[in-house]
């Protein structure tokens, strides 16, 4: 019997989002965190970094009685009013709580109330990143460190009058006097932009190794880069110190500029353009190959990341399919689930399509058959079977077809894994860790047996992960439960598998704020600034 009983869950069926339902994100997606330190999936606007610097410097260096809650509300108010109350305006996307606060305000009022509560995401999401960017942090013994970088960035914002910070209601004329807070004005604030670009691209150094506060902008190395193109792009992996992390972020941002410059991706599909550029080294639009030169070492690690992105998506898509099969019948046994998901038919169809002898198929055999059809050891966009096309099939498949495309994807990934696994730094005891699931023993297992094993492992892992989270964190994370061998659906809102690479949208948004990118006619291009920086890297 499952540790989570069916009868009990009827009273507490979870409605919230399911995050990492198989507990495999940490084991597979760590590269995107390591190579973008200071940037997360939810830190998409450059102005918040400046606003936090302003707060930390004023509060802890100048000892002013200042509230970040009030600063954030002022930013929201300015953003909304500056763009004519158009809450969907492109210029104020990813400004937190603009909808919440706009509902509290009357456009025609002569003043605006700043007392309503907000979720304070501006602080909670960006605060940790200020430490990763060597700006400000709190030590274990309670000291607040505010670095020279933080002070320089704070000084670029302009002065928010103290009387405005104290008011619970802000007159319209006061709002007009602080329009410089709007996130869209970063491009116009040359001093702010200059500090931020040096910060994000890693032109920083610790001037005095004995003092935590002596992190400074490295103007000398920046000027050298601008005049000669000389820039450090070598790093240790795994990172040995903070300098390695800053260079890894630098290279990633330059890599993104390179990809945009070579592909000019459509706005709606830009993530897929990035995937194909790092994984296949190709322009998704015309299948032309891309040479990365000095940025190749960064692309290589992002290729490893996207191998894992495909892998995690495939397993979560299988979990989603299991969920829909269980949901369609309310409750099923595992043997019934194998039949509902067309396990045997999927194996037969795969054998017929690839010309494999009946009842002999293995993932290794499928991989070899694909290789003989593709006639290339490394997949790309020109071959019949590649990870991008199989991903598209998985995305559109109903639960009864998911297994067939899961077998295809795992076979493709197993070959790419052999080429990359020597540089995959982490390991894991999880049965769903990529090196364990795609081990030689599993690759040589009869495909029908492998399919049953895979479905059972996905089910068992989800039940165990959700049970542990319930026990340790009181988190109701389960999609289905099992009692006496019967699976029962247990959610109000179904789980939906999605690709788990989440840094590219933030990188794009920040680089747009800093005037490296622009969007025109629904395509993304480099600005002159972006072209200039990239050209300096490419000419040396």
Describe the structure.
It is a single chain. This protein has 540 residues and is mainly alpha-helical. The protein has 25 helices and eleven strands. Mean pLDDT is 94; it is low at 1-12. The chain is globular. It has helices at 6-9, 25-28, 30-34, 46-61, 68-82, 98-102, 121-132, 148-154, 162-166, 172-177, 190-200, 219-228, 242-263, 270-279, 296-329, 334-340, 343-354, 363-374, 387-396, 402-420, 434-437, 440-443, 447-473, 504-513, 528-538; strands at 111-113, 136-138, 144-146, 169-171, 204-206, 215-217, 331-333, 480-483, 486-489, 517-520, 523-526. The longest helix has 34 residues, at 296-329. The strands form five sheets. Strands 7-9-8 form a three-stranded antiparallel β-sheet. Strands 1-4 form a two-stranded antiparallel sheet. Strands 2-3 form a two-stranded antiparallel sheet. Helix 13 (242-263) crosses helix 14.
Keywords:
540 residues; mainly alpha; three-stranded antiparallel sheet; two-stranded antiparallel sheet; 25 helices; 11 strands; 52% helix; globular
């Amino acid at each position: 019997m499952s540790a989570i009983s069916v009868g009990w869950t009827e009273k507490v069926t979870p409605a919230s989002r399911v995050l990492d339902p198989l507990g495999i994100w940490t084991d597979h997606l760590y590269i995107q965190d390591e190579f973008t330190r200071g940037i997360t999936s939810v830190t998409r606007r450059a102005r918040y970094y400046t606003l936090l610097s302003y707060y930390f410097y004023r509060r802890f260096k100048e000892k002013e009685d200042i509230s970040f809650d009030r600063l954030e509300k002022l930013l929201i108010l300015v953003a909304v009013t500056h763009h004519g109350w158009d809450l969907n305006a492109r210029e104020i996307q990813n400004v937190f709580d603009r909808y919440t606060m706009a509902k509290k305000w009357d456009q025609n009022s002569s003043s605006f109330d700043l007392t309503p509560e907000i979720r304070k995401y501006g602080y909670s999401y960006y605060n940790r990143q200020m430490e990763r960017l060597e700006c400000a942090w709190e030590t274990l013994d309670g000291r607040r460190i505010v670095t020279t970088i933080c002070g320089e960035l704070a000084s670029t914002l302009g002065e928010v009058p103290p009387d405005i910070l104290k008011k619970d209601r802000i007159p319209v004329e006061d709002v007009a006097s602080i329009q410089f807070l709007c996130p869209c004005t970063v491009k116009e604030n040359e001093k702010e932009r200059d500090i931020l670009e040096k910060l994000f691209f890693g032109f920083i150094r610790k001037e005095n190794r004995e003092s935590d506060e002596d992190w400074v902008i490295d103007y000398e190395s920046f000027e050298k880069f601008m005049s000669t193109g000389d820039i450090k792009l070598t790093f240790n992996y795994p990172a040995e110190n903070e300098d390695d992390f800053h260079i890894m972020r630098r290279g990633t941002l330059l890599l993104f500029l390179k990809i945009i410059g070579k592909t000019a991706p459509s706005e709606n599909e830009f993530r897929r353009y990035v995937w194909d550029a790092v994984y296949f080294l190709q322009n998704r639009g015309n299948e032309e190959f891309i040479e990365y030169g000095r940025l190749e070492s960064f692309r290589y690690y992002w290729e490893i990341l996207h191998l894992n992105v495909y892998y995690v998506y495939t397993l979560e898509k299988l979990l989603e399919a299991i969920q829909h099969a269980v949901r369609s019948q309310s409750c099923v046994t595992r043997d019934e689930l194998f039949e509902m998901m067309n396990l045997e038919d999927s194996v037969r169809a795969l054998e017929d399509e690839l010309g494999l002898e009946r009842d002999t198929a293995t993932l290794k055999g499928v991989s070899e058959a694909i290789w003989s059809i593709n006639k290339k050891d490394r997949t790309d966009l020109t071959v019949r079977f590649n990870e991008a096309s199989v991903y598209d099939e998985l995305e559109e498949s109903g639960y009864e077809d998911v297994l067939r495309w899961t077998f295809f994807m795992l076979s493709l990934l197993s070959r790419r894994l052999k080429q990359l696994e020597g540089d995959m730094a982490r390991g894991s005891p999880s049965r769903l860790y990529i090196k364990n699931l795609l081990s030689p023993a599993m690759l040589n297992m009869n495909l029908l047996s492998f399919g049953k094993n895979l479905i059972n492992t996905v089910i068992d892992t989800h039940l165990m992960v959700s049970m542990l989270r319930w026990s340790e964190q009181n988190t109701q994370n389960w999609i289905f439960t099992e009692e006496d061998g019967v699976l029962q659906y247990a959610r109000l809102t179904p789980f939906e598998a999605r690709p788990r690479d989440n840094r590219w949208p933030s990188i794009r948004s920040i680089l747009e704020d800093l005037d490296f990118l622009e969007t025109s006619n629904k395509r993304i291009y480099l600005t002159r600034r972006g072209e200039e920086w990239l050209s300096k890297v490419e000419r040396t």
